[in-house]
Write the structure tokens for this entry.
Amino acid sequence: GAIGRQLNSSLGLNGKALRFVAGHGEADTHHSEDLTNTIRDCLTHASDYDDVCYVADMAADLYVGILEESVQA
């Protein structure tokens, strides 16, 4: 929600882009709680935690790349 609206406003997109960012933020209001429960209930080994951290880092890097590319376009 808020990031999508802020990018939309600062880039002057008039609501015509960044639907994924805005929609994803709206859909994931309870995502942190669900993720916490899944990690608590399903990760059984230290290597599981390491794998989740790796994927989270990679996803964050990809989102940053998407946002940087959208600003440069």
